[in-house]
Design goal:
By secondary structure, this protein is an alpha+beta fold. The protein has 11 helices and 17 strands. Helix 1 packs across helix 10, helix 2 packs across helix 3 and helix 6 crosses helix 7. Bound molecules: adenosine monophosphate.
C-alpha cells in the first residue's frame, strides 16, 4: 500500500473537492463549496442521493468499485467524506491517489465504539463507564461491574439508536447481545443526564483550531429533534467543551470539522458520548447564525485554506423536519424561519427530510 497523499498547496477556486457519500450533509457541503468557487464531485452508492442535485460531477457506484473510485480520486484535487461508515479499504484506496481528510485514523477510530471510548479515555477525558462485550460471560461481567441501568451498543454500524438496547439486568444484557447476533458490543452505564450538548470544532491543515458555541440538543426516539444556542452550559463548561474537541482533534492530527456529543451530568461534568468525524446535524444552525458555517469550515480545512470565523451573530433554534412532517412544506415555508429541504423523494418514518432554523437577537457570549 502506498502512503496517503498530502496536499502540497491550498486547492484553488475552480478546482474540485470529492465527497464520498451523497446525503444531506454532502448536499450542504457541496452548496458551501460552490460559494467559495469550488466544484464538487459526489460519489455515492444510491442513485437518488440528495447531493447529486447540487454538484458539478457525480458517480453512482459501489464503494468497492476500484475502477470508479480511481476515476473519481484522480479527477479530484482533495477528497472528504460525509458519513463515517466509509469502508476502510475505500478510504485507503482514495487516500493513495488524492489527499483525503479527515484521515484514515479518525475514520477507523470512530467506526468502533470500543476503540473510540478507549482513545477518549486515554486523553484523560471523561466518558460513561464502559466494558467490552463479546461473549455471554463478558456480558454478565460487564453488568456486574456497572451494576445498574446500562445500554448495550454494537461496536460498529450503529446510528440514530440502531444497534442499542437499554438493559437492567445481566439477563437483559445477554439477551440483547444475542438479539444483536453476537456482534461485538460495549455495555455503557446509562447516564441520567441533565441535558445533552455537543461541540463542533474545526482543525485546519496548519493545526489552527476554532469551535462554534456549543448547542444544547434534544433527541426523540434517538433522533435529534432540536438544537438550541446558547445552551444551558456555563461559560466554564463551554470552555471545557472546546478543550475536549481540541484535545481530540490535535491528538488525531485532524483536518476538517468534527463534532463531539456530550452528556452533561447533574453535577455538571461533561462526558463524551460519541465523536463524529464530519459535519454534524447539531451544527446546521451555523448556516444561518454564523459568519462561516460548519460546512464552509469543513471545505476550507479539506482544501487547505485558512479557517473562517465561527462567530455567531444570533441566537438560534434548529428543528429537524422528520418523515411525514415534510408533507407540511407549504405551511413550513410560511413560518419565519430559514427553511432547508433536502430534496428527498420518499417520506419514510424517521428520515431526516430537512430542517428549519429560527433566529433571535444574540443574548449570550457562549
Ligand atoms: P448514540 O448513538 O450513542 O449517539 O446514542 C443516541 C442517543 O441515545 C444519545 O444522544 C442519548 O440520547 C441516548 N444515549 C446513548 N447512550 C446513552 C447512555 N450511556 N446514557 C443515557 N443515554 C444514552
Amino acid at each position: 500500500m502506498s502512503p496517503a497523499k498530502r496536499l502540497s498547496a491550498p486547492v484553488a477556486p475552480g478546482s474540485t473537492i470529492g465527497i464520498l457519500g451523497g446525503g444531506q450533509l454532502g448536499r450542504m457541503l457541496a452548496l458551501a463549496a460552490a460559494r467559495l468557487g469550488l466544484k464538487t464531485h459526489i460519489y455515492c452508492d444510491e442513485d437518488d442521493a440528495p447531493a447529486f442535485d447540487v454538484c458539478h460531477a457525480r458517480t453512482f457506484a459501489r464503494y468497492d468499485d476500484e475502477r470508479s473510485l480511481a476515476h473519481f480520486a484522480i479527477g479530484c484535487d482533495a477528497v472528504t467524506f460525509e458519513f463515517e461508515n466509509v469502508p476502510a479499504r475505500t478510504a485507503a484506496f482514495v487516500a493513495e491517489r488524492t489527499p483525503l481528510n479527515p484521515g484514515a485514523r479518525a475514520l477507523a477510530l470512530t467506526q468502533d465504539r470500543l476503540e473510540e471510548k478507549n482513545f477518549v479515555a486515554s486523553l484523560g477525558l471523561q466518558t460513561p463507564a464502559f466494558h467490552a462485550v463479546s461473549s455471554p460471560e463478558e456480558a454478565r461481567a460487564a453488568f456486574a461491574a456497572i451494576n445498574g441501568p446500562s445500554v448495550l451498543k454494537t461496536r460498529r454500524f450503529g446510528y440514530d439508536g440502531k444497534g442499542q438496547a437499554k438493559t437492567l439486568s445481566a439477563d437483559d444484557v445477554v439477551n440483547a447481545w444475542t438479539a444483536f447476533e453476537d456482534a461485538p458490543s460495549i455495555l455503557e452505564a446509562f447516564i441520567d443526564f441533565e441535558f445533552e450538548a455537543s461541540i463542533i470544532g474545526a482543525r485546519g491543515q496548519d493545526g489552527d483550531f476554532v469551535a462554534y458555541d456549543p448547542p444544547q440538543n434534544v433527541h426523540e426516539n434517538h433522533i435529534l429533534r432540536r438544537s438550541t444556542v446558547p445552551s444551558r452550559l456555563s461559560a466554564a463548561q463551554a470552555a471545557q467543551a472546546r478543550h475536549i474537541a481540541r484535545r481530540i482533534a490535535d491528538a488525531l492530527e485532524y483536518a476538517g470539522v468534527l463534532a463531539v456529543e456530550l452528556f452533561v451530568t447533574k453535577d455538571g461534568a461533561l462526558l463524551v458520548n460519541e465523536i463524529a468525524p464530519r459535519v454534524h446535524n447539531s451544527g446546521h444552525w451555523t448556516i444561518d447564525a454564523c459568519l462561516v458555517s460548519q460546512f464552509e469550515q469543513h471545505i476550507r480545512a479539506v482544501a487547505g485554506w485558512p479557517l473562517g470565523s465561527p462567530e455567531r451573530h444570533a441566537d438560534a433554534v434548529m428543528e429537524n423536519i422528520i418523515g411525514q412532517e415534510a408533507a407540511d412544506w407549504h405551511k413550513l415555508s410560511e413560518s419565519c424561519g430559514a427553511l432547508h429541504l433536502y430534496g428527498k423523494k420518499e417520506l419514510r418514518a424517521g428520515r431526516k427530510m430537512g430542517h428549519i432554523t429560527r433566529l433571535g437577537p444574540k443574548t449570550s457570549a457562549h
